[in-house]
Amino acid sequence: MSPIIEVRGVTKRYGGLTAVNDVSFDVEKGEILSVIGPNGAGKSTLFKLISSFVRTSAGEVRFRGQRISDLAPHVVARRGVVRTFQETTIFRAMTVRENVIVAHHLRSKATLAGFFLGTRAARADEAAFGASADDIIGFLGLDAIRDEMASTLPQGHLRALGMAIGLATGPAVLLLDEPFAGMNHDETMRMVTLVRRLRDERGVTVLLVEHDMPAVMKISDRIVVINFGEKIAEGTPAEIQANEKVIEAYLGSEDAAIGM
Amino acid sequence: MRSILGVTAFLLAVFVAVPWLIAVSGRWDFYYTLTSVALLSIASAGVWLTFYIGRINIGQGAYALAGGYVSAVLITKAGFGFWLTLPLAGLFCAGLSVLIGLPILRLRGVYFAMVTLVLTEVMRLTALALPVTNGAKGITSIPLPGELSVFGLVLIPDFASLENPKLAFYLMAVTLMVLCYGALYRIVHSRLGHLCRSLQQNEELAASIGVNTAWLRILAYSISSFFGGIAGASFVAISQSVYPSSFQVADSVNFMLNCFLGGLGFVFGPMLGTLVLYFGWDLLFTTGRYQLLIYSSLLIVLMLVLPNGVLSLLDRKGVRR
Asked: What's this model's pTM, rounded to 2 decimal places?
């Protein structure tokens, strides 16, 4: 079976600075793949290149064999590759449930004019979105805060809400931007379980960018390591932990906590 | 249930109670004032919709002026009836706003506001320069709206044949206002409105859930400009004339203030804001040269005390909008 995501020689230059240089790897359907690297290695840029929030300078990203790089972000989302955001990017002035319902946009069968006129298809959509939102809220354990204003939520819940928003679009591939950032050990372990369940119970392929090593080792089927914008290693967690280049890259940087 | 009662009460008030009160009190001049408020509130409703997608619009005067000219030119030069020019003026403005919006709607915050601020002035200068608009002399002696009939059935009589065209204009303006606010209410409470809110709160996140943000911005802006266009065309019909100075930068600023004052979180905010602002200005007329000073000081105080608009008083009492 061909890979669901193919990253082929992707490069991003900002003026004279090359943030990402000729990176290639595949993501297989149904796997959890992590991209790691020291601070400033180009992880975030690579993430934005794959979700097409940034244009490539060279190379391309393919989804199910079709090029998705350099398309408008909403088109990439429509194809089934959906990203979440690193920080507290949610619709602040909506309740948790409203956040999740509005994110069902891609699943609507009725047109906007249909919604305006309140046609039967539109009403059916609304009912389906409500039910699906409640299902997702239950899945992520957000029932208790369903009707809370998103702006009042603590960090941990916000991260889960961000994931709920991504899930509501019905993605084939979910791109998670540092899902464990700023979390303590217990929160991280809960999130690890959650991401696994995303894949196991919802069949979502997960590509995540992260620098929390223990979590990455625990969660990933495979890992891609980048440093100074270039891929230096790729393999299973065990292979990565034994890789000379990776150890060097991490020990050579201030962030020595490789967690082995 | 509660909202049906509210709507009924409102319709009774504007279509029955107001004409009755005016007939009893003999204050016929109020018709002109209330007609103006109704039409200005339509233009303000458009501005409110652009606020709803997170853009500060200080350019609605441009579309009101354009709509007025489209109607005036079509009536005087092409022999169209007013009732046909009304939707055409709206559509012209909607189309124009797509062309203008495509480049400028990429801008956010104060940059978008600054560009729109210039629009009204650009439109005024355009009206001065174009041959078809007759320059500074404007277009005058525009005939009153004629008869509107469908298959021989007269829906609206010829205004010129009426004993009291003031009442006719009032009814026309109020009907338009009810239609526009009805449409706005539906927009806001349907999926379209939810997507607009998503856009207002976070454009990147909206794009990530598959919303075509550029298209949605254009759509909202063109509906907004449609409102501006029909308001302008109606105004021109009442005054039977249009000049480059009919709608100025100050008008554009007022449309925005109406929204602020009434409340950006409430569909009917701009309507109330227009009423309060228009009457507030008139009531202060007796203070002579202190009028502007008192007026602007009051506005500042109101915005400090009620930053979410007059209608936010309802929320404090726990009443949902």
From this structure: 0.89
